Amino acid sequence: MLTVRVVPCLDVKAGRVVKGVKFRDHRDAGDPVDLASFYNDEGADELVFYDITASSDERAIMLEVVERTADQVFIPLTVGGGLRTVEDIRRMLESGADKVSINTAAVRNPQLISDGAERFGSQCIVLGMDAQRIRGSGATRWGVYTHTGADGGRAAGMDAVEWAIRAVELGAGEIVVNSIDADGTRKGYDLELLRTISEAVTVPVVASGGAGNLDHLAEAVRLGKADAVLAASIFHYGDYSIRQAKEHLHAQGIPVRL
Amino acid sequence: MIAIIDYGAGNIRNVLRAFTHLGHDACITADRSVIRDAHAVVLPGVGAAGDTVAALRARGLDDLVHETIDHDRPFLGVCIGLQVLFDSTAEGGRQGCLGVIRGSVEKLPPGLKVPHMGWNQVHQVFGSTVWAEVPDGAKFYFVHSYYVVPEDESIVAARTTYGVDFCSAIARGNLFATQFHPEKSGTLGLKIYDNFVKATLGTHSRH
Question: How buried is B66 (Cβ within 10 angstroms: 0-12 exposed, 13-18 middle, 19+ buried)?
């Protein structure tokens, strides 16, 4: 049986992990390679590096970080942030990333998804989507946002569900659905958003934004129909280990790799 | 030397990294003599089977795959590197593949998320040195939308279930090929590469 993936996400800036990562007995909690190795040992199913670097010089550092990680960590690695062209994607994959996550650049130029999928295969093109609820009467809707790494984000003027469907038609092989409303609240994922997108597309959906405890992870799978759960702070701050997360899912009858 | 066939595909360096990490001498190459002299030949692959077949033919490497397997020299196929060995694939309309192994490649049934992406159980069909110290039913990382259907059931080395019960590895003599990605399957994945190299050491005589 296919298992649900538990995926820790690391925000990386100029080659260092941002947001305090608190591990006891850990030599360098700011080194993404060291942390990737730690999470791999803990049983993470995949890893995500999100590059929140501003300058292109610092982006070159990310390639080196990915290279060093791929040399010693043998589970899938997705890298997102700042990838704008097919050439950017190529360099990241050659450095050792298995998948790239694109958001702003795909909204600006949807053809980047099809060009990337054509050249490297759909399996390595992930649509990273930041969505926010649109207040108003009638059925719940969500809008797509870009530049969320920088200044709180800009509305793209697109419907999140329609964009997800279109991205899959263009060749995206997976979608990371990040709820802006839920992100950072630690009150749980936006389950309605997750379920709506997961039921609208044929590719795997990764839940992102809002995990505060282990029940949230289980809800994302059972109610949100997510195929994978991504979380950052609950793992980084040492609230829960990957192992605990998986044991919790397992106890709820959700298949995991233990 | 282990020769990883370079046919211009993207991310095949992670396969090289796995062998290097295990301490095995390996290289990515399109050089015919290097591939011929290699102790073992590895055909990795991501993307589309049709493109891979076309790229191998364009580089004149398709016959080397035939030759290696026909002479039962050690050969390891991974993912698309398994699929292209068959007669044809349903991907991109029905397309011809290398025809080294009798059988076809079919699309995973509708109703499930595709690609089949993530860790799934690999049930070993028969004992093999490649499975040494790998528990039956252990989980490996898959990412694919098509699966192989060998005509000869006796080469099916493992099965996995995703909507359909499909062949997730084949073995015959010094040929071993997996639908899953050992290089992305952590310690047990690396164990399979290590087992393959050790099992085939010394079996290659130059032709």
Answer: middle
Q: How many CA atoms lie within 13 A of A59 on its CB side?
A: 13
Asked whether the beta carbons of residue B120 and residue A2 sit closer than 8 angstroms, the reply is: yes
What the block records as the tokens of A19 is 């947001």
The answer to whether A204 contacts B118, with C-beta atoms less than 8 Å apart, is yes
Q: Which of B116, B125, B92, B91 is nearest to B105 (CA)?
A: B91
The answer to whether the CB of A46 falls within 8 A of the CB of A74 is no
CATH code for residues A5-251? 3.20.20.70
| Shortest distance, CA A102 to any CA of chain B (angstroms) | 18
Whether residues B17 and A204 touch (CB distance < 8 A) is answered with: no
* Number of Cβ atoms within 10 Å of the Cβ of A91: 18
Domain boundaries defined on chain A = 5-251
Confidence of residue A29 (pLDDT cuts 50, 70, 90): low
Judge contact between A50 and A206, C-beta under 8 A.
no
**Sign of the C-alpha dihedral, residues B29, A92, A125, A211?**
positive
DSSP-based helix, strand, coil % in chain A, nearest 5? 40, 25, 35
For residue B190, what is the nearest residue in chain A, using CA coordinates?
A: A74
At A141-193, the pLDDT tens digits run: 999 998 876 566 789 999 999 999 999 999 999 999 999 999 989 999 999 99
**Coil, strand, or helix at residue B139?**
strand
Helices (H), chain B: 13-21, 32-37, 49-58, 62-70, 80-83, 186-200
Give the residue on A whose Cα is nearest the Cα of B114: A203
- Determine the length of chain A: 258
pLDDT band at A55 (very low <50, low <70, confident <90, very high): confident
Which domains, and CATH codes, for chain B? 2-200 (3.40.50.880)
Would you call A130 a catalytic residue per the annotation? Answer: yes
Alpha-carbon span B2 to B24, nearest angstrom: 8
B residues 98-127 closer than 8 Å to A (CB)? 113-121
Tell whether omega for the bond before B150 is within 30 degrees of 0, i.e. cis: no
Which chain B residues have a beta carbon less than 8 Å from that of A90? 10
Asked if the C-beta of A75 comes within 8 angstroms of chain B's C-beta atoms, the answer is: yes
Pairing of strands B40-43, B75-78: parallel
> What's the full length of chain B, in residues?
207
User: Where does the pLDDT of residue A26 fall: very low under 50, low under 70, confident under 90, or very high at 90 and above?
Assistant: very low
ipTM score for this prediction:
0.95
